[in-house]
Specification:
This protein has 11 helices and 12 strands. It has 293 residues and is of the alpha/beta class. The chain has a domain of 182 residues: Rossmann fold (3-Layer(aba) Sandwich), CATH 3.40.50. The strands form 3 sheets. Strands 3-2-1-4-5-6-10-12 form an 8-stranded parallel beta sheet, sandwiched between helices. A two-stranded parallel ribbon has the order 7-9. This is NmrA family protein.
Length: 293
């Protein structure tokens, strides 16, 4: 039995689908029961689980032999870092009590850095906690996800300007589709891991893009002229606060992009490198279609 935490997320859905397509038994862990139907429809067992509720994690892990673990950054709270650290600690305690499991933990490019990377720093802490709690651990570090641009898609479609925190606009950066991450995660789960210790695997897409490339891909998908706009650094925090993010959440994002723009976040050369097949235009075609539905 393969257990998928965060099953209703972009990557989790792809992992579950890839495993089911290959005929494997899958238990999808969802926080919201309303998400159950998408998984029962493809033959998954569905259980309700909450990373703040250790008992629910043990129920989800019963009789499993491998698990995909995702601790997402919480939204809406006063301090997302504190909330995520709490989830990491709960998950680590639960996993420690299931020592036979092979765990594939979803992480980020740059997680080897121990300071100054904002959101990515939280995944550094996740990796450290899991390395102490899990005997057979695979860390799957992915580049920035292509679907993250969906957050500014309405603005770009309405104004013809794509706001970017990537500076300068012509600097390429690694990015990857949720489809490719999910398919690789499924492969790593099926491969298993006999030896104790930590394996680090990285994934990004078939090529790197800059923000101007992103705007061109969106223009093609939307069939309208869209150009990239380097949002001035002084406007980052006010813009995010106006969008409804709390101050602590906004700081995590600004720290992340400060590190990204300084060249501090990239693939760890010590990792096993993998490359997805999905190009950005294909992802944007789906995002635009969904936005206009």
């Amino acid at each position: 039995m393969y257990v998928i935490f965060g099953a209703s997320g972009n990557v989790g859905r792809k992992t579950a689908a890839a495993l089911r397509d290959a005929g494997h038994a899958v238990r999808a862990v969802v926080r919201n029961p309303a998400h159950s139907d998408m998984f029962t429809g493809i033959g998954c067992e569905v259980v309700q689980g909450d990373l703040d509720d250790e008992a629910s994690l043990h129920r989800a892990l019963h009789d499993a032999h491998a698990v995909q673990m995702l601790c997402p950054l919480p939204h809406g709270g006063a301090d997302p870092a504190i909330a995520m650290h709490r989830m990491i600690a709960t998950a680590a305690r639960a996993l420690r009590k299931h020592p036979h499991l092979h765990v594939v933990a979803l992480s980020d490019y740059g997680a080897e850095q121990h300071e100054g990377t904002g959101i990515t720093m939280l995944f550094h802490d996740l990796e450290a906690a899991f390395a102490e709690s899990v005997r057979r651990l695979t860390l799957l570090r992915s580049a920035e996800h292509m679907h993250n641009w969906a957050r500014v898609l309405p603005v770009a479609l309405a104004t013809g300007k794509l706001p970017s925190l990537h500076h300068p606009l012509d600097r390429p950066f690694p990015t990857v589709s949720a489809q490719d991450v999910g398919e690789l995660a499924a492969q790593l789960l099926v491969e298993g891991r006999d030896a104790d210790g930590v394996r680090i695997v990285s994934i990004e897409g078939p090529r790197r893009y800059d923000a101007n490339d992103v705007a061109r891909a969106l223009s093609e998908a939307a069939r309208r002229d869209i150009t990239a706009l380097a949002l001035p650094r002084s406007e980052w925090t006010p813009t995010m606060l106006r969008a409804g993010l709390g101050a602590n959440h906004a700081k995590l994002i600004t720290d992340l992009y400060d590190a990204q723009n300084a060249g501090c976040i990239d693939v760890d050369p010590r990792s096993e490198r993998r490359f997805g097949k999905t190009e950005l235009p294909g992802v944007f075609a789906g995002l635009v279609r969904d936005a206009r539905a």
